[in-house]
What does this fold into?
Amino acid sequence: MPIPVLIDTDTGVDDALALILALRSPELSVKAITTVAGNAGVQRCTRNVQKVLEVLHEHNTVPVVQGASKPLKRTLVTAPEVHGFEGLGNFIPVLLHYHTRVRANAVEVILGHCRKYPKRLNIIALGPLTNIAAAFKRGPSLMRNVRRIISMGGAFRVPGNTGPVAEFNYYVDPEAAEAVVRGRLPLTMVPLDLTEQIVLMRKDLEYRARRRPSALSRFILKFTRHYMRYHLKAEGFDGGFLHDPLAVAMAIDPRMFRSRPATVHVETRGRWTRGMSIADFRVRPSSRGSAVEVVFGVEKERFLRLFHERLWT
Ligand code: BDR
Ligand code: CA
It folds into this structure.
């Protein structure tokens, strides 16, 4: 039976690829998508999710609910240099099937799904943890009763991608991240240590898209262009990291990953270290921290095979 999944996302380019992977994977059943401000403002993120669903003809099947428009305590920082002002590069998606927004509360929707699928729900958090922290504050026992929360975020033994030490999602809302990592939740972190091991090269993408011409492959080519140009300038390779698709793959097939338990904290007070994640792999769960599973290795070929199989067939 497919695993019930709720995806919380700040749809961005790699988020969009992650959504496509999730929606095309029979192992998962995506029950709802909630949005959060991060890569772009939350309205743009919501529109981007809706566009992905339209292209996949899933706009009538998966509810999209808009969530937090800013972090718990801070001013929103977005990432236009990486994801463009629109979140999907500079491509402006026009919606064909959505006329009104679903007027639901994202926190209620998250808790409602925890209630509906106790011990079975996987929550995949692809952006700042603002909605997840708010849901945890309102319903801690419901949130502890999920099967797994997979959060793409953090950087332990590699440099940050937002300043020298912090990963973007935890930098944007460090208070939310800290509340979640110390919440004694069944949490799995997918940090930059893992995600920067996997790159989607532009040549490879174009080759595959050309072999499978379709509305979906044209859409993917359009929204990844800016992201890849950014990586060429900033990282020196002509491609892009697959941060968020790796978090989805963790839900699809955890056996291809290697992880270790650790006590984790996220810095909320440091002057130069906002959002930095710190792991103590000696694991001594205490009242001030709780053990989370930190993913640090993946079978690269196996992951890429899965990713491409699902995207292009
Ligand atoms: C994370 O930040 C965002 O820019 C990406 O979508 C990903 O979730 C990587 O640091
Ligand atoms: Ca993201």
About this structure: Residues 215-235 form the longest helix (21 residues). The chain has one domain: 3-312.
